[in-house]
Fold this protein.
Amino acid sequence: MNGAQWSSLSNTVEQFAAAAGILGGGVWAYFKFLRGRAFAYRAQLTIDELASHPGPLPSISLQVNLANSGLSKVPFAPGLKVVKVFAVTDRDWFEDRNINWGEPFILTPIFENHGWLEAGETITEAVLVPVAAEMSRLCVAYRVTADVFAAPRREKGPNVSWFAETLLVVNRDTGANQSESNTDS
């Protein structure tokens, strides 16, 4: 082999290596950035229409909404879709310190008829939570939270969950309720 042939061979190998590097980099970038972001689980969980119903059968009614704003189906973790209700009574109310909500007094499963959420889909569920008569009589505020967990993906990564909460202050003088909500998705 003479010098011209060696030069031609080295140029061919160099061009092949550059093409393979560019192609490999593109494949790596797709799987690292585009695919992971485009098909990430994205949803928003909200609690709406919260109301307290005193009377002979006291309860709290609310509506839970979950909207999938991503491009992929979101499978749910079984048994990890729940509404938790906390209460503070007038005995636990102190003007000089923050409220300690303690443990929830009731857990209510939600979206039991749904195993997943399709891309662009929104599901809504009306929930009626019973409240003990004594608790209803003494309660001055409720904290309602909703938690929904996605099923883990095959690849290792953080578990995805959505959380929403709202407060319901019971006004005993007028019988009216006042709610304030916060969501984190």
The mean pLDDT is 85.
